[in-house]
Structure formats: C-alpha cells, structure tokens
Amino acid sequence: MKNKIEFIAFDADDTLWENELYFQELEHKFCHLLRKYSPAPSVSEELFKTEIKNLHIYGYGLKGMLLCMIETICKVTNGEGDLNLVKEILRSGQELLQRPITLLDGVQEVISALHENYKLVLATKGDLFDQKRKISASGLQEYFCHIEIMSDKKNADYKRLLDHLGCKAENLLMIGNSIKSDIIPILELGGYAAYVPHHVTWAHEQYEGEVTHSHFIKLNNIKEIQNYL
Known about the structure:
GO terms for molecular function: metal ion binding; phosphatase activity. It holds the Pfam family Hydrolase. Keywords: Hydrolase, Magnesium, Metal-binding. The protein has a 6-stranded parallel sheet, with helices on both faces. Helix 8 (179-189) links the parallel strand 4 (172-176) and strand 5 (192-195). 45% of the residues lie in helices and 12% in strands. The protein folds into 2 domains: 5-16 and 101-225, Rossmann fold (3-Layer(aba) Sandwich); 18-96, DNA polymerase, domain 1, CATH 1.10.150. By secondary structure, the chain is of the alpha/beta class.
C-alpha cells in the first residue's frame, strides 16, 4: 500500500472532531422533555424511526434531526404537546449549531505530517452550512487540496469524487469511523480504507459484520496510520 497511495481522504465528524456525542446529549435531553408522555427508550425508538423514514428528504445532519424531533413530538403527544417543547428543542439545536469544534486526539499531528507527502482530501457528509462551519472552525482547512461535502457516501458518490480528483481507486486511502459509510464503499471500488473506531456511533452507522479484505486496516487511533505509510 505504501507505494501506491497518492490521495488520503478523511471523514470529518467523529474522525477528526467530536460530533455524535453532542447529538446523543441532545437526544437524551429530548427524551427527558417528553418523559411525561412516554418512557425514554420508546421516545428514542420513535425518533430513530422518524429519522430513517425522512432520511431521503432531509439528508444527514442536525437540521434534519431537529425536524424529526418536532415530528416525533407531534406523534408521541398525539398532537397535544406544549409548543414550549418545540421551542426548547430548537434552542438547544441552535446552540449545538454554534458549538466550538474539539479536535480528537492526534488529529492535528497526523494531518500536519501527512500533508507533507500526500494530497489530502476531506470527504464528509451532512448539512452543507453546518459542515462548512465546522471545517472552518477546525483550523484544518488549509491542509486539504479538496473538500467534498457529500449528500451520502455510497459507491456512486465515491466514484464521482475519484473522477473529480483524477484518481484511481487503488491510489486512494480513506480514513473514517464508519464501516458502512467510510470503509465498505471504498473497498468495493478497489481502494484502501483505514477504520478508526469512535466511542459513540449513531445506530444507523453501526455495522455488525466483520471486514476481511486485504486493503482494510483497523486502527486503535488515528496516529497509528503513520505506521502504514
């Protein structure tokens, strides 16, 4: 692999900086607000079902989650919920949309080191405005030769990215925390992929299977990637 890689692409949320933890904190608060209508596990399950149902409409990101929370309030309360519930969730969501970025351990060091020998790409998905804000606030923008904010991360999406870069799949290494979104599609296209587990993962991104592929690397932390390059 070492002599083949020209481009290294990084996922952003929960690979370079903390993200899902804050979403889960918001969900816990949401469940607490609705505690008199339904137990927390039931509210959480209903929210997840609503998010998946609307994913093709809203896409990924916090704004879509907030819309799904409002819809869930209507369903859980049978349309009789206090409008202050909506007001409180919107306020909390707006706070999260302005939250400072916290880089994960080793990220600055690794990005800075790899930038000297490879073309670095940021390949993230989510709400356009929010992702642009986080990228700017991260202080990492200058290291990337290309930034792609994707609506999804399926094979066709990565194929378009490769075509834009003028890069063959076997010359790309993708680094990310989601087996489903960051690893499997790249391996299927013939590229290399390094999985960096994160301590919290959204249920939709969880993967129960085992990846066995000659182009697959599992890391304990992002700093270990330097041992393979």
